[in-house]
Amino acid sequence: MYIIVVGGGRVGFYLSKELLEAGHEIVVLEKNERRARQIADELGSIVLPRDGCEGKHLAEAGANRASIVAAVTGDDEDNMVICQMAKHHFQVPRTIARVNNPRNESLFRHLGVDEVISPTKMALGAIEQDIPVHEVLHLAQLGAGEMELLEAQIGPDSPAIGRQPADINLPEGCRLFVVLRGDEVMPLRPETVFRQGDKVLAVSRADCELDLRRQLIGDSPAAEASAAT
Amino acid sequence: MGCGRVGAGLAERMAREGHDVTILDLESSAFNRLEGDFPGQALRGDGTDEAVLRRAGTDGADMFFALTEGDNRNALAAQLASETFGVRRVVAKINDPVRAEAYTALGLATICRTRLLIDALARYGGMEPDPGADGVQPATAHHVHAEERRQAAIATGREGR
After folding, report:
1. Which ipTM was obtained for this model?
2. S-S: A147 plus which of A142, A165, A185, B110, CB 3.0-4.6 Å?
3. What is the pLDDT of residues B70-112, one digit of tens each?
4. Is residue B161 very low, low, confident or very high in pLDDT (cuts 50, 70, 90)?
């Protein structure tokens, strides 16, 4: 496959290295000439010392025959422009953007970027698994990232304690399916009664997370604050 | 967004005409370009950050101008304003003529200083005016339509090569 990587920072460098080793045809666009030479010294003459945001440089790199353009610079705005130019101007079938501000993720998807990679969100996800500050853990993103696999822990103040699934009022986009109680894994049944300490797994659209939090964790100020971030 | 000479001048003029104006810049020193009695609001912050735009009142704004020196920052902020906040009249200053034209086809009204100046000077020199360089260029299409074109291109067989 012919792949254009824009941005020769650490991410771009190691990405290109791995892709080369996997046998793909790669061109790296790196606007800093010194950095471009360093990469060429390591990986061979696969580097163009050009700014990939400029249409003519993408053309020079052969964007109109590329199967993938990966925009992995440190600047969200550059990555967005690169993907939009690649996709809409050069009809590249698949565009991948690194996004640093997690809030830009949904905009990028809306604008037609095929794959959005958020190091910030990945690191945050890893940290949340270790330190359950939010009480709702993001375990995985499903599909194009619109759906998430979540884990909600029923604390002492949870309004769900003593209630059954039918009593929990959740929107369409959110489904509970498994309860982890101690070492037991229990599928959710109509007769299940929630207890303090239960961990409930849910698949939810991002916009339903607040409802899930309200129903299973409660309206504590901490929950509200973390939901707002 | 962007309190340079153009941003400051435009904000001054619109605020004096009685509009409710907020101007954003990364550097508070940029606000020195505003007159001491500027009747609008000046806010320090990054206009490519959705949270900052929200604080600036973009939700509910009638117009949004992205006028920083960075074409890509302007394109990102302008698309946040139009797509995320639903602002109806959005203009992005994009000085690279190729990118400016690409973005008018993706749904942004753009103004391209490079073409504007070339045209003004060429006309002064007696040349014919460039019709594509006259002021703000309205959007000619939207990225959703561009997506349809892309799907057509995929259908012709570039996917998965």
Report:
1. 0.82
2. A142
3. 999 999 999 999 999 999 999 999 998 889 999 999 999 999 9
4. very low
Predicted structure pTM score: 0.70
* A residues 51..70 contacting B (CB < 8 A): 53-56, 65, 67
pLDDT per residue as tens digits for the range A95-135: 999 999 888 998 999 888 999 998 888 887 777 666 555 57
In A72-111, the residues whose Cβ lies within 8 Å of chain B are 75-78, 80-81, 84-85, 87-89, 91, 93-94, 101, 103-104, 107, 110-111
CB contact under 8 A, A89 and B84: no
A4-19 pLDDT per residue, tens? 999 999 999 999 999 9
User: Could you report the per-residue pLDDT of A41-70, keeping only the tens digit for each?
Assistant: 999 999 999 999 988 899 999 999 999 999
CB < 8 Å to B161, chain A:
1-2, 67
The rounded radius of gyration (Å) of the Cα atoms in chain A is: 22
Q: Which residue of B has its CA nearest to A106?
A: B84
Q: Which residue do the tokens 């929950």 mark? A: A223
Name the DSSP class of B154: I
Would the CB atoms of B72 and A53 count as touching at under 8 Å?
yes
Please check whether residue A28 is in contact with residue A16, taking contact to mean a CB–CB distance below 8 angstroms: yes
Q: Compute the count of residue pairs across chains A and B with CB atoms less than 8 Å apart.
A: 89
Question: Could you tell me what percentage of chain A is helix, strand and coil, using 3-state DSSP and rounding each to the nearest 5?
Answer: 40, 25, 35
For residue A154, the distance in angstroms to the closest alpha carbon of chain B comes to: 31
